[in-house]
Amino acid sequence: MYAVSELVADLDRLGVRPGETLLVQASLRAVGPVADGVHGVVRALRGALGADGTLVVYTATPENSRTSSYYRAAVAGLTPAQLREHHDRMPAWDAADTPASPTMGRLAEEVRLLPGARRSGHPQTSFTAIGPRAGELTGRHPWHSHLGEDSPAHRLYEGGARCLMIGVPVWCCTPLHLLEYWQPDREEQQYRCVVRTPDGGREWRSFTGTRLHDEHFPEMGEVLAAGLPELIATGPVGDARCHLMPIREAVDLADKWYRNRQS
């Protein structure tokens, strides 16, 4: 079983710097057994970042979207009556109380629950942060900009943040979706979700945003690994193989590759 101090040492060797802003996307199972479990991993990350660092996680709820693959899988084969029942059971999203999707991993939810953590107000693609930059990163997140230029993803890009992938490949870095907002032929689509109203009720709302794709991400990961060999640090944290990558340089390279691929 790994002690918290051992994980802090691993993070230091990998290159995590005190005072930086770090987006972490993780598979805790890959890390192996840790003293105090997920709480120990969070303590290690905050210990490596120090009091001046900001820890960021992706606390999305993709099930709360009638266009997501998670929603489509859940409703596949339902009769009209069963579909209405499913919609009635869908939890209404509330920034303060709605857990991150289980697909985001336990680390994301643990950070969301920390005293002082701040969560952005998007019912499908929220981010949560804790540290000096938390308010700046999460304070504005209009619904039309899931992962676009008015979202925390772009503030991470602009602010020189890095992404740490613990036990997951480099293409899992969520801000890579930024490149889709920069394409001249980007597609728009209508999104629909259920949210909690101020009086505690439920309300379905629709809005328009950029249609997001991820089928190209695995191939894009190979491009990043080949194109940024000196900027992507790779090493262990516990048992997990990890990658530490600058978000701006990764998105810029991915955008260039994507445009060439499209043409």
From TrEMBL:
Annotated EC: 2.3.1.-
One Pfam family recorded for the sequence: Antibiotic_NAT
Keywords: Acyltransferase, Antibiotic resistance, Transferase
Source species, domain of life: Bacteria
Protein's name according to its UniProt entry: Aminoglycoside N(3)-acetyltransferase
Organism name: Kitasatospora saccharophila
Membership in a protein family: Belongs to the antibiotic N-acetyltransferase family.
Reaction equation(s) it catalyzes: a 2-deoxystreptamine antibiotic + acetyl-CoA = an N(3)-acetyl-2-deoxystreptamine antibiotic + CoA + H(+)
